[in-house]
Design goal:
heterodimer; A: mainly alpha; abc type-2 transporter like fold; 2 domains; four-stranded mixed beta sheet; 68% helix; 6% strand; B: alpha/beta; Rossmann fold; Alpha-Beta Plaits; six-stranded mixed beta sheet; 13 helices; 14 strands
Chain lengths: 377, 332
Amino acid sequence: MIYRIWNLTIKEFTQLFRDKLLAPLILFGPLAELLMIAWSSLQGIDHLPTAVLDLDNSSASRALVVAMENTETFDPYFVDSLDYITADVQGGRALAAWVIPRGFEAHLLDTGSSSSAIQLIVDGSDVMSAQTAVETAQGLAASYGQSLRLQTTMDSGLQTMDTPLDLSLRVWFNEEMKESNYMIPSELGFIAAAIAAMLASMVIAKERELGTLEQLMVTPIRSSELVIGKSIMAVSLGYALFLLMLAMVVIFFGVPLRGSLPLLMALSFLYMIVELGWGLMISAFAKNQMQALLITFAVIMVMIIFSGYAFPVDTMPPLMQLISNIFPLKHWLIIFRSILLKGAGIREFWPDLLAIFILGIIIYTGTIFLLRRNKLE
Amino acid sequence: MELERANNHAVSTVDLTKKFGDFTAVDQISFTVERGEIFGFLGPNGAGKTTTMRMLMGLLPPTSGQATVLGFDSQLQKNEIHQRIGYMSQRFSLYNDLTVAENLNFFGRAYGVRGRQLEARRKAILEMASLTGREKEMTGNLSGGWRQRLALGCAILHEPEMLFLDEPTAGVDPISRRDFWDLLYNLSNEGRTIFVTTHYMDEAEHCHRLVFIENGRLAAAGSPEEIKKEKMDGQVLEIDCTDVETAIKILRDSGLFQEVALYGAQIHVVTDNPLTHQKKIKEMLAAEAITLHNMAAIEPSLEDVFIASVRSEAGQPISSSGGQQSTEELTR
């Protein structure tokens, strides 16, 4: 039995590495994707092209523009009229626009008047950029206003005002609130297992498509041996990919690894075996490689939405939160982030680990049932 | 046990039946195959040949009835059967992205052949298939005849007692077909049983024994000679003349003959009264100013028998299209 499985595994690897498209795609595709996500999330959102209509043209308005530029969120350029702003934002040349009204400086210096107004226009169709622009602008307005007020109070020789509420902010586990520390583990935690599942479903569907499956079924090779042989190939490839990517993000992208590495390696292997079950289940009814691929993609899409990969699970509607529990990926991302960022151990996340175990048992029971019924024909 | 097995038939079925929903693909087929013979399994496409073969090998459970292969039950002991048979499916299912040697190694190892034995067998197979020196070639680059011989090689590397071949010569050129049958004779002489489906009638003549199946039912069984004798009431006249098309038409329209069909450039006419009818045919052709070169009573080929049997089975009137074409339609 071991000899037959070994024979199959060797064959699978020979075929995989001979495929001029599949092997590079599987190895470098996820690496490239991870690199891109890492880079873009590391860099954050900045240097948004920003149109500025300065109707005041005063030292205060120019100081505001300089302060704006210093945030590095905005790359200001001046325009002459509102029409330009409309045209540029609509045409995508500007993602934000400022309008500084006439009398801005005078209004500011007049201590008796209410606060002075400036207008920020942002392109809401690009939510991420818009959010960043709004947050930066609010911060800018607050600090600019405060320093100005400070100046005026000092000029008038009055005591500085106390802020009534002093907020002491501490962000745990991700002190700088780096987006990369959220996005990279998501990507890394999910892609290797998805690749393993997809690969397993494809290689079985390939045999069926080419008619070699029937040939194999009349050899002493049993269905179970066939499935194991193919799974060994898929899992070892997926796992190698995972370790490679993990090393890359920890070494080059400064994602912290605060928990136990052996624990992480053991659990990620377990998780990969669980997700492989999906691939095998799909292979039980996919008639060819194309079907296997498309079904796997559909499953992955649903998984991503429910798993907290992109949107936090806690902010979903209650029903969706409930449903999200049936996806191993959701639990795995919690475990993975906990080990990486929080340095947590099994004591902290055992409910999620238990959930993965139970889901694994359910998935494999279904898979074995389907494979038996469809007899791999 | 071994002795008991040795006394058994290579294949034995009793009322083997397979239904797919309402459709009966194989209908109560009973036959036996003796050890060491080349056994032909004939019938038009969709007649149930492949379904039967798959049931014998344990790939499909029968709806009812029973089958044994080499003395083992097809359903309960398929692992025993799989150890002892070789199978070549319709599409020569090889791995195109493996080399010739890798394919042989893989299938050899799948049957537990290993080490020095594997080396020796691989060498022998390469020689048999005239593939020596092409071990490193990619299988996908081989042309039809080579692929077919490699597929046979993969099926016999583990020296099986019995071989199942599903239309092994489909899509292969005539010379390769001839070579292939020579290989089958050699295997048969070594004492191996060969079970082969085909729709080439000339190949059927090469079999020791055969069965015809038709709409899932057994239509005839026996040696080619027995089948001809049993199924063919009447004699075949071969006619060589000018204007074959007109000739066929008038012969058919006369309604005198069981069968009028075109074979190459000649016309075959089946009749139960050859002497009287020879005279009639001469008159009919002369009346249309067709020159008769030659007319003789010949030994019927299996194709003649096959067409006659299929037509009578279907109760189908003799069609007016050319005989050769309708043969193709029926057998393809």
